């Protein structure tokens, strides 16, 4: 189970300032945990969720799954079933440069979820995409292994733990 966050992104910024990357405020909060943190695990996909499904089925070890979905608003990359699998496998949270669906159900799950918006449409299942590569969106470069901190104020990224 995800441990409660004992700090705020605003406090981290006050303490670490220029050493942090601060994401542009593009994301809405959808998960049951408004605050989450962990090492980033990155994916790059476009309107396809098979790689996401395979990833959340693996042990999350309190990592934050960062998905660059190309900012597509045409379909959702995460729904209640995948979010529930993420909870079962100990993922701390998911940040999506794209959409989710089943927002009411996702809000009841013990996982942090930030995304651009919601969309009821389902993506393809071709398995296309890349994992563990640098992805850039919201003015931030996310690298696998970087430290991600998120709360209701936003998202900050650090190369070292805060």
Account of the protein in words:
- The protein is of the alpha/beta class and 162 residues long.
- It has a single domain, classed as Glucose Oxidase, domain 1.
- Helices cover 17% and strands 33% of the residues.
- The chain has four helices and twelve strands.
- It has helices at residues 9-16, 50-56, 80-88, 103-106; strands at residues 21-22, 28-29, 36-44, 64-68, 76-78, 93-100, 112-118, 130-131, 135-137, 140-142, 147-151, 154-158.
- Strands 1, 2, 3, 4, 5, 6, 7, 8, 11 and 12 form a ten-stranded mixed sheet that branches.
- The longest helix has 9 residues, at 80-88.
- The radius of gyration is 14 Å and the shape is globular.
- The protein starts with 8 loop residues before the first helix and ends with a strand.
The CATH topology: Glucose Oxidase, domain 1
Per CATH, the architecture is 3-Layer(bba) Sandwich
Tell me the radius of gyration: 14 Å
**In the residues, how many domains can be counted?**
1
Helix content bin: 10-25%
Structural class: alpha/beta
CATH class assignment: Alpha Beta
Our measurement of the CA-to-CA distance between the termini, rounded to an integer number of angstroms, reads 21 Å
Helix and strand sequence? HEEEHEEHEHEEEEEE
> At the fourth CATH level, what is the homologous superfamily?
Ribonuclease E inhibitor RraA/RraA-like
Biggest sheet layout = 10 strands, mixed
Apparent shape: globular
